[in-house]
Amino acid sequence: MRVFLGGIVTETNTFSPIPTGSDDWAVERDPAEFRAGSALAAFRDEAAARGDELAFGLHAFAMPAGVTTWAAYRELRDELLDGLRDALPLDAVFLPLHGAMVAVGPDGQWIDDAEGDLIAHVRRVVGPDVKIGVHIDLHCHLTQRMLDGSDALVIYKEYPHTDMADRARDLYALIADTVAGKIRPTMAMFDCRMMGIYPTNPKPMRGFVDAMMAAERGPLAAGGDGVVSLSLGHGFPWGDVPDSGARFLAVTDGDPELAATTAEAWGRRFHDLRREVAVKPLPLDAALDRALAVLEAGRSPVVIADQADNAGGGAPSDSTFALRRLLERRVEGAAVAMMWDPIARHLAESAGVGARLTLRLGGKMSPASGDPLDLDVTVMGLVDGLVQRWPQTVGAVDSPGGDVAHLRVHGFSGQTGGPEVDVIVTTRRGQVLGLEPFTAFGITADTHRILVVKSIQHFYAAFAPIAAEVVYMAAPGAVAPIMEQIPLVRADLHKYPWVEAPFGEG
Asked: Over 90: is that where the pLDDT of 502 sits?
C-alpha cells in the first residue's frame, strides 16, 4: 500500500510564560535521519518490512511551552497538507501527534484541540476512503473530533513513555488490516472524571496497564471478542481546556456498541482506582526531610523529582526554589540537573574550567522561576552537545541536551563555609531523561547522595535502577503537581480530586 507519514507535535501548558513560536520547532524532512528507537523510525521500518511505499511530509517538534502562535501553526500545517496533496493517491495516512496542543487561531481565539483541527484538514484533503491512523501521547486531551476524523487512534500505554515505538507498530498493523478489509475499526471513549499524574511503574497502575494489554485481542487473533485496541488517555492537567482529564478509548472490529460498553467498563475500572494511582508529591521541605531520612538510614542515593520545573510540561526549567533550600539547609552531597540558563553557561565557558567566579543563576523567566541566586561557583566542566540516552522498551532514544556546564556551588555570594552543591546548567531547555547530565561530569550514585532532576516522571526509567528511593517533590513552579493548586478556569472540574465521587458512587 502507499502511505503518508507526517506530524506536528507539542504539548501546551496554557500557563507557561514561554510562547511557542515559529523559531521553536525542530523540523525533520528526511526519513533516513529518524533517530533509532523512535516512533518515527518504527513507522518507517514497518513500511519497509511490509513492502509499502512511504511518502513523508514533515515531522515538527517543539519543547512543551505556552500556546502555539497562529503563524507557527499555520506555516507547519500548510506545509504538511501541501506534502499530503503531492503524495496522492494514498491508501493510508499516519499522523504521529501529541494530543494536547493548543494554538491561536486566525481570529485570535484558541484552537483548544489543534490535533482535531489538523486531522479534520487531513481528512478534507484525502477524502472519506483513505484510512487515517493517529498515534498520540497519553497526556492528551482526547476529543470526539479526533475520533470522528480518524479511522483508528492508538495512545502510548507507558509513563515514562518507553513504548512509543511499540504503539507505532500496533497502529501500523491496525491500519494495514483496515486497508486490507480484514477489520472495520469502530471507536468510543469514556470520560473517567479524573485528573492527575499516573506513573505506570508502581502498583496498582502497573497491574491496570498489564491487564489492558492482555485484554487486547489483536486484529487477527483467532477467537477474539472484537476488541482490537485499548488505550487510556491520562490527560494533561496544565492545559486549561474543556476536554482535559482522563478518558478511556476502546477500538473494536465493526461493533460500535461493544466499543462504547468496553470503554465505559474499563473507564469505570480505572475510576475505581482514583485514590490509589495518582502521584502524591511532598512539599519542598518535606521532600528534603524524606531524602535526608533515607540517607540517615544508610541508603543512597535518593533521587528527588523537581516536578514543578519540568520543561517537558512547559516549565522554564530555571527555577531556583530547590537549589536555594539545599543551600539554606546546608545539604551536602547533592547535585541538580538541568537548569536552563544560557547566559550562565556562556559565562562559565568564557571563564574556563577551573575558574572560580561569582555568578547569577536561574530565576529569569517568571515569578514561577523564583528569584535569581548570586552564587560563588567553580567551573568544573564543559560539554558541547550533550546527548541523553532515554531508555525505551527496546534500546534507547537519543535526545539532545544542549551545551552544558558543571558548576560547583560553594554557597551564596559573600557567604563563607557554605555547603557544596553541584549544578548542571544547559543552553537547551529540556527535562532530564537519562543519566548523562550527571555522568558526563563523573557524578554518579557513588559520588553523590542526592540527585535532583527537573522532570515529572520521564527520568524514572534511567534513575529508578540506581536509586535507593525516588521522592516526588512539589516545589513552587509552572507545572504544579498538586492538582488543586493548578489555576484552572476553563476545565471541567466535576472530577476527582475536586469532587470525591463524580459519578455519585458511595
From this structure: yes
Cα separation of 250 and 265, whole Å?
10
Per-residue cell: 292: 535526608
Do the bridges between strand 131-136 and strand 152-155 make them parallel or antiparallel, or are there none, so unpaired? Answer: parallel
Helix residue spans in 254-400 (DSSP H) = 256-271, 274-277, 284-296, 321-328, 342-351
The structural domains of the chain, ordered by start, are 2-277 (3.40.50.2300), 282-480 (no CATH)
Sign of the alpha-carbon dihedral angle for 243, 244, 248, 252: positive
Q: Model's pTM, two decimal places?
A: 0.94
Taking residues 171-198, what's their average pLDDT?
A: 97
Report the sign of the C-alpha dihedral through residues 438, 443, 444, 449, in that order. negative
For residue 437, which phi and psi values (nearest 5 degrees)? -55, -30
CA distance 244 to 29: 31
Cell 537519562 -> residue: 434
Residue 224: predicted pLDDT: 54
- Return the pLDDT at 505: 75
Q: How many helices (H) and strands (E) does the chain have?
A: 13, 20
Give the pLDDT band (50/70/90) at residue 13: very high
Q: What angle do CA 56, 12, 464 make, to 5 degrees?
A: 90
- Secondary structure of 296-341 in HEC code, one letter for each residue: HCCCCCEEEEEHHHCHHHCCCCCCCHHHHHHHHCCCCCEEEEEEEC
One-letter identity of residue 72 = A
- The one-letter amino acid code at 163 reads D
How far is residue 422's CA from residue 444's CA, in Å, rounded to a whole number?
12
Q: Are 308 and 476 in contact (CB under 8 A)?
A: yes
- Give the pLDDT mean for 92-107: 98
- Phi and psi based region of residue 291 (left: phi greater than 0; alpha: psi -120 to 50; beta: remaining): alpha
How far apart are the two ends of the chain, measured CA to CA in Å? 52
Helices 205-215 & 256-271 angle (0-180, nearest 10) = 170
Neighbours of 477 (CB within 10 A): 27
Element (H, E) at 209: helix 205-215
pLDDT digits (tens, 9 = 90+) for 106-130: 999 999 999 999 999 999 999 999 9
Structure-block grid coordinates of residue 485:
493548586
Whether residue 285 contacts residue 475, with contact meaning beta carbons closer than 8 Å, is answered with no
